């Protein structure tokens, strides 16, 4: 076996979890991370070959375990993965998606590719009304949601407010565990006694991390269980966050105690993905614009770089204007008006939406047309 073959190998096609398996030693962890970095640094063509090999291996793993496979499809990344899987395994590979959550141009490409549509477990308005707005980040939203429940005597509430871990945390202090002071001040009003140093307030809306679960994760999970599917996912380490940690830990193909998935694009960068999309002649959804190459050779999309649900606010506080909601106005003014001003009704009977949320966290959103000069001559709807 050559050094390259050794680098590209991965056991029998998947990392398999086994009951009672020993915890990874530090030496094994260093070795795994070193191999991971080598794979991330592979040339584009070798990454594509590796992805194809992982796709073939996953098909074998599914067959050996009596499972079916399909691609979970959303935006450009997974659309590209679906085409790569079909070119590798044949046109029989299904794509499945909660398409209704995507931009209309993405839905059109899904339909063109024959992607199977799955209905959300709840609609968007129900999720916002029952659980709250997805804002800041998924992790922060979960903590804020907990702080919005009155009378919670759990020590974890104090830990979120102060970082003091209490007996369950060895009486230590962990600033990484606590909610940042900026958000404690805006959302920690019910437990302000823990933070007399801050003028903590209660927000006039609920916050939650539950949107993805009800809109996408639960219905997809139920469909996969019903049809015995172990999915292909278009996730990449280069996206960072929890995904990066999981992909570094488990590799491309993984069968765990409660989950099984293949991520053939694990080691791809954004540039690798766009190169592959061009190579496969992917029909790029209109929301992304076109894939173009800048003078320095860098590929980019002329429209959106990333897409998601039109009501998602995770990370909005880090975006400069025009941000995602401004672009929503440019694409669909009526939809923008609904989500910003009318999607919910408060206890006083007043209509409200993301506008109230953005005002509270200090993100501008009014007059989006100022960022799109090309619309200046168009008749704007009365807001």
Structure description:
This protein is mainly α and 383 residues long. It has 3 domains: 3-118 and 230-287, HUPs (Rossmann fold), CATH 3.40.50; 124-194, no CATH class; 319-375, no CATH class. The protein is built from 15 helices and 12 strands. The strands form 5 sheets. The chain has a 3-stranded mixed sheet with strand order 1-6-7, covered by helices on one side. It has a 3-stranded parallel sheet with strand order 2-3-4, covered by helices on one side. Strands 5-10 form a two-stranded parallel sheet. A hairpin with a 5-residue loop joins β8 and β9 (299-301). α3 crosses α4 and α13 (324-331) crosses α14.
Name the features.
globular, 8% strand, Rossmann fold, 3 domains, mainly alpha, disordered N terminus, 15 helices, 383 residues
Query: What's the architecture of the largest domain in CATH terms?
Result: 3-Layer(aba) Sandwich
CATH class of the largest domain: Alpha Beta
Q: Return residue spans where pLDDT drops below 50 for at least 5 consecutive residues.
A: 1-8
Gap between N and C termini = 67 Å
Task: Tell me briefly what this model is.
This protein has 383 residues and is mainly alpha-helical. It is built from 15 helices and 12 strands. The chain has 3 domains: 3-118 and 230-287, Rossmann fold; 124-194, no CATH class; 319-375, no CATH class.
């Amino acid at each position: 076996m050559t050094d390259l073959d050794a680098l590209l190998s991965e056991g029998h096609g998947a990392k398999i979890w086994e009951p009672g398996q020993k915890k990874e030693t530090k030496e094994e962890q260093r070795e795994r991370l070193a191999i991971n970095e080598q794979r991330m640094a592979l040339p584009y063509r070798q990454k594509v070959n590796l992805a194809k090999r992982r796709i073939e291996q996953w098909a074998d793993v599914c067959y050996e375990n009596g499972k079916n496979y399909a691609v979970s499809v959303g935006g450009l990344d997974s659309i590209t993965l679906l085409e790569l899987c079909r070119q590798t395994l044949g046109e029989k590979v299904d794509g499945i998606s909660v398409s209704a959550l995507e931009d209309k141009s993405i839905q059109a490409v899904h339909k063109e590719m024959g992607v199977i549509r799955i209905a959300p477990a709840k609609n968007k308005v129900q999720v916002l009304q029952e659980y709250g707005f997805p804002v800041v980040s998924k992790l922060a939203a979960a903590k804020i949601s907990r702080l919005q429940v009155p009378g919670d005597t759990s020590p974890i509430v104090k830990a979120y407010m102060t970082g003091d871990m209490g007996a369950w945390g060895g009486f230590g202090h962990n600033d990484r565990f606590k909610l940042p002071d900026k958000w404690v001040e805006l959302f920690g009003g019910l437990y302000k006694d823990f933070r007399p140093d801050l003028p903590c307030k209660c927000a006039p809306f609920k916050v939650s991390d539950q949107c993805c679960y009800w809109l996408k994760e639960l219905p997809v999970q139920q469909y996969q269980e019903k049809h015995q599917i172990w999915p292909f996912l278009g996730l990449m380490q280069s996206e960072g966050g929890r995904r990066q940690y999981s992909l570094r830990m488990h590799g491309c193909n993984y069968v765990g105690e409660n989950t099984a998935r293949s991520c053939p694009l694990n080691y791809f960068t954004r540039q690798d993905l766009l190169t592959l999309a061009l190579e496969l002649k992917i029909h790029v959804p209109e929301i992304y614009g076109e894939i173009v190459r800048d003078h320095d050779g860098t590929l980019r999309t002329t429209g959106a770089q990333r897409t998601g649900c039109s009501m998602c606010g995770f990370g909005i506080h880090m975006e400069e204007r025009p941000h995602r909601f401004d672009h929503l106005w440019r694409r669909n003014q009526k939809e923008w008006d609904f989500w910003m001003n009318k999607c919910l009704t408060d206890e006083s009977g007043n209509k409200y939406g993301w506008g109230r949320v953005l005002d509270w966290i200090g993100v501008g959103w009014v007059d989006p047309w100022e960022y799109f000069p090309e619309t200046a001559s168009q008749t704007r709807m009365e807001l």
